[in-house]
What does this fold into?
Amino acid sequence: MKLLRNLLRVVLLLFIVLNLMAVFHAYKFTHFYDATNEPVIQRPEQMGFWQKTKSLFFGINYYKSVNKAFPTGAYQTINFKTNDGLKIESWDWPIDSSQGYVVMFHGHGSSKSRILGEAAAMRKMGYSILLVDFRAHGGSDGNTCTIGHDESEEVKLVYDYARAHTKGKVVLWGISLGAATITRAVAHEGVEPDQVILEMPFGSLSEAVKGRVRIMGIPEQPVATLLCFWGGVERGFWAFSHNPYEYAASIKCPVLVQWGEKDPRVTRAEIDAIYGAIKGNNKKLVVYKDAGHESLYEKQTDLWLKEIKSFLN
It folds into this structure.
């Protein structure tokens, strides 16, 4: 009987410790500290053993991204306001005789300045560009994000602006978090783009968390489930229903899905689930053999330019 009581105490202690770790990690993953002179925090896949050990217990501090590069030539800063009062900063980078707008959304911890290469390339293809900072990123307000859940409102705000300021097409492009958020905006915000480009979207928030845990080199379960649960609790939504592979079924326009075969975060199964959910045959999946979870434009420029140009035109 005493042995059983001691065993139960150990199990209870482990349960408490695991949940406390999950609370820390969930908070750190969805919270960005104001940019300071702190050193840049490495991605988990770049960390050494002791760095991973420390971050295993206390999470990784992320600092709010800063826009360090800007469009060349004439552009305008446009600010939008969310329902909860956050300023969302965007850059309107137009061209004459435009075929429409490409509205562009960055990934987690990134900013609009880091996708200027892709933006400049599509601008040369005849499109005006709208670059957006999600909440808690770049020049936008806030310090917390919801990994695409609430950010779908921001997609809607900028989409409406683009639709009102062009007689041409409105194309939505997103990478990673940006791509996943686009799918939710189409499903839940009434966004109806003419074309969509999704690069490395995660299939579900629970799968995205598994990818993060996997890179840390620790067992996926039960850590991933606890992280997902506490992240949703802390940010006020049911995280297990945040599933781009389900949202994708609402997309009715032509879609280009792109993914790097060496991606350690987003699996082929996730990409196949999203691609399979998109209805109709007006879709294309392109796999980049040499790329991971990174800029496909920078990694395999020629292939990216070829596929984007073919899809847009």
The two ends are 74 Å apart (CA to CA). The chain has eleven helices and ten strands. Strands lie at 32-33, 62-63, 76-81, 87-93, 100-105, 128-132, 169-175, 195-199, 255-260, 283-288.
